[in-house]
Write a structure and sequence with these properties.
Blueprint lengths: L6 H13 L9 H27 L5 E3 L4 E2 L12 E3 L5 H9 L4 E2 L2 E4 L6 E2 L2 H9 L3 E3 L7 E5 L3 E4 L6 H11 L4 E6 L4 E3 L7 E3 L1 E3 H9 L8 H13 L4 E6 L3 H5 L5 E4 L4
Parallel strand pairs: 1-7, 2-8, 10-14, 13-15
Antiparallel strand pairs: 2-6, 3-5, 4-5, 8-9, 11-12, 14-15
Helix pairs in contact: 1-2, 5-7, 6-7
């Protein structure tokens, strides 16, 4: 199973909607998350199909749009914290701020509720068990909540893809969660002259790291949280590594590996 992000892409889609707002009706953010999950999934799916065909591997690949269940009263919905889109110039930043839209480090922020489940989890599990490579939870999946009268309803927000991957990994009884990013490992003192990569973490040490302030509120914190949750709920190990080092990380030669106890 494969889960991918969409932060830059969904932000760009939102900008396109706003730019064309006087010509066509803009789409809600949740719908744009689903849209990017579709077209990005198509591109990944096609690339994997071609690579498997060249390698002579008879595996099928499918993209599934999955809805991410969240709590409608999640306090994170009131405080936008997730950067989306690319870095904006100062003029566009000022325009967003004037409209009451939060901006940090040049990028607009969107609300990011904590995912509590995946609506289509059984379908993902069934497809994976029959040998299909499933692309699911794209961009964290469009967030939804259960309305007592209407049933499932969308939320204008983005869910964290790493937490969604951990949930789906648990649902399909995966042994390993591999989180690929643009940093080669989890670090002590990241960004300082004394930074040091952490190659091995037990669950207890990961929890201790999360309890402190060293990881801040940046993108590495949700990755470590997702990795720890995956191991805590039955996964054998979780790995955080740079994209180009994925295979080496699986072999224990790169990245940061989290296990219940010392391996």
């Amino acid at each position: 199973m494969l889960v991918h992000g969409n932060g830059p892409q969904v932000g760009d889609e939102l900008a396109r909607n706003e730019i064309a707002g006087d010509q066509v009706e803009p789409l809600p953010l949740g719908v744009l998350v689903a849209g990017t999950a579709g077209w990005m999934g198509y591109m990944i799916q096609q690339s994997l199909q071609n690579a498997l065909a060249r390698a002579g591997v008879p595996r099928s690949v499918v993209t599934l749009i999955t809805q991410t269940l969240c709590d409608a009263d999640d306090p994170n919905l009131r405080t936008p914290s997730k950067p989306i889109g690319h870095v904006l110039d100062t003029v566009r930043q000022a325009r967003l701020v004037a409209r009451g839209i939060a901006v940090k480090d040049g990028r607009r922020l969107a609300p990011s509720p904590k995912p509590i489940g995946i609506i289509e989890r059984e379908m993902v599990r069934d497809l994976a068990r029959t040998g299909h490579i499933v692309i699911a939870g794209g961009g964290g999946g469009p967030p939804v909540y259960r309305d007592p009268k209407l049933g499932l309803e969308g939320i204008d927000a983005v869910a964290d893809k790493d937490r969604v991957a951990a949930i789906l990994g648990r649902e399909i009884e995966a042994q390993v969660l591999l989180i690929l990013t643009n940093v080669d490992a989890v670090y002590h003192g990241f960004g300082t002259s004394r930074q040091e990569p952490i190659r091995r973490l037990t669950l207890a040490l990961a929890d201790h790291l999360l309890a402190g302030k060293e990881l801040g509120t940046g993108s590495m914190r949700p990755k470590v949280e997702a990795a720890a949750d995956f191991v805590r709920t039955g996964g054998e190990r979780a790995i955080i590594a740079e994209l180009a080092q994925g295979l080496a990380a699986l072999q224990g030669e790169a990245g940061t590996t989290i296990t219940k106890e010392h391996a």
